[in-house]
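FORM 12-B: Structure-to-Sequence Request
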């Protein structure tokens, strides 16, 4: 299955994508994670992406499209994959359709996770992420068993640089201007399913499981 997760910053895309990935045994491809990894390693890509990410702006389409094309051509994607944080512009959505057409494949379902602005700020300011495996925590709604340490791998937890309030506001405004229009694009293709992301993590997961079952 090829699944696209849409939603504003803090909607729970990463949280839900890792559940889908585990359940369906297909890779979770998060463009944000790919860029953060590149920044950490100090690669050329990381240097380019860093300036945009720090400000909460989007990395240019040509860069992102190239990376996704390469990634989804890898053998582990042959049974499907989950895209988290891509596409994020109309140009990216069209580029993705072209890539998939070349591979004789197509998107099965687009899950649009909505969440209120209040929740976004609450969630992102208390988010912690594992440095080693990327697992996502929240100090109040989804805390690690031991403070500062990942339950899954024992890695150290850190706060993302773009989870500062002023950057969060800009990410939201970029989302509204550049990403929201693609909701309509997928609606018109009859691929879109709305998910209420304001509920608890397990309740959101129940909605997603049902949506995926309905498409299989
Ligand atoms: P990216 O990493 O994709 O960030 P984002 O879209 O802003 O989304 P987040 O990762 O912040 O939120 P999420 O929806 O994954 O929520 P999470 O599950 O963590 O992108 C970062 C940057 O990279 C961009 O700004 C851009 O610069 C660049 N970039 C990436 N992709 C790009 C692209 N395609 N084009 C151009 N540039 C690109 O959950 C959030 C918190 O809430 C956690 O603490 C979690 O535990 C908690 N939580 C989750 N669900 C619930 C729930 N139901 N109830 C209570 N708490 C919950
Ligand atoms: Mg994420
Ligand atoms: Zn970990």
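FORM 12-B RESPONSE
SEQUENCE OUT:
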């Amino acid at each position: 299955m090829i699944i696209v997760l849409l939603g504003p910053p803090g909607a729970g895309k990463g949280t839900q994508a890792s559940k889908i990935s585990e359940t369906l045994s297909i890779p979770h491809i998060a463009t944000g994670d790919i860029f953060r990894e590149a920044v950490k390693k100090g690669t050329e890509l990381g240097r380019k992406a860093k300036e945009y990410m720090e400000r909460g702006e989007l990395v240019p389409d040509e860069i992102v499209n190239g990376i996704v094309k390469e990634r989804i051509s890898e053998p582990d994607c042959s049974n499907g994959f989950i895209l988290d944080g891509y596409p994020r512009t109309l140009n990216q959505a069209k580029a993705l359709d072209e890539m998939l057409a070349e591979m004789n494949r197509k998107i099965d379902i687009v899950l649009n996770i909505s969440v209120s602005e209040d929740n976004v700020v609450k969630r992102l300011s208390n988010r912690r992420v594992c440095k080693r495996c990327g697992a996502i925590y929240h100090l109040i709604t989804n805390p690690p068993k031991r403070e500062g340490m990942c339950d899954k791998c024992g890695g150290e937890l850190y706060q993302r640089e773009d989870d500062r309030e002023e950057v969060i506001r800009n990410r939201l405004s970029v989302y509204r201007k550049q990403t929201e229009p693609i909701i309509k694009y997928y609606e018109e293709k009859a691929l879109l399913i709305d998910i209420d992301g304001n509920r608890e993590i397990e309740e959101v997961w129940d909605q997603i499981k049902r949506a995926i079952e309905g498409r299989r």
